């Protein structure tokens, strides 16, 4: 199983020759963007050392759970397309999130986004659901996104949509 850990980040970091004198904790504290797309990652480890992480690319992996992302509270952009996510969990701490890409997963209920007051874009198109299943929307989530976020844009095309 491949896990996104600080060791994996260190292994693939593109620290320039000028910054090689930085320790790993110093580097992790300063990193703002990470791209670990298409690396067969199944699990996300604690990223709390990446205090300034604002953009995270994890599309085209095998990730099932988002629970460890709560510690990445400075995220503004999260790209999680084409993984194996079935439900949204523990995203309430990501209050700075403005763009959330979740297309091509297996999410059945869109819920738990009420605290994401800065969210401007939500992409949930192309969910891989069993035949006859529909993408359900929790009314509290829809209400909070529509009312508190006047310029909210959603890409919801999933064939069939249902308000719960």
From TrEMBL:
Check the record and name the InterPro entries matching this protein.
Answer: Leu-rich_rpt, Leu-rich_rpt_4, LRR_dom_sf, SDS22/Internalin_LRR
**This protein's record includes keyword Disulfide bond:** no
Q: Which UniProt keywords apply?
A: Leucine-rich repeat, Repeat
PANTHER family per record: LEUCINE-RICH REPEAT AND IQ DOMAIN-CONTAINING PROTEIN 1-RELATED, LEUCINE-RICH REPEAT-CONTAINING PROTEIN 9
Name this polypeptide is given: PPR42 phosphatase
Q: Which organism is it from?
A: Coilia grayii
């Amino acid at each position: 199983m491949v896990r996104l850990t600080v060791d994996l980040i260190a292994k693939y970091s593109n620290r320039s020759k000028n910054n090689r004198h930085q320790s790993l904790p110093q580097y992790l504290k300063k990193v703002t963007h990470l791209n670990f797309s298409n690396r067969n990652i199944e699990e996300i480890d604690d990223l709390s050392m990446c205090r300034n992480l604002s953009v995270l690319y994890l599309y085209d992996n095998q990730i099932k759970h988002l629970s460890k992302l709560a510690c990445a509270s400075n995220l503004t952009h999260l790209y999680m397309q084409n993984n194996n996510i079935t439900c949204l969990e523990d995203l309430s701490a990501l209050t700075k999130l403005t763009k959330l890409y979740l297309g091509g997963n297996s999410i059945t209920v869109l819920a738990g986004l009420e605290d994401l007051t800065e969210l401007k874009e939500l992409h949930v198109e192309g969910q891989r659901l069993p035949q006859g299943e529909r993408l359900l929307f929790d009314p509290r989530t829809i209400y909070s996104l529509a009312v508190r976020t006047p310029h909210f844009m959603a890409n919801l095309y999933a064939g069939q949509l249902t308000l719960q």
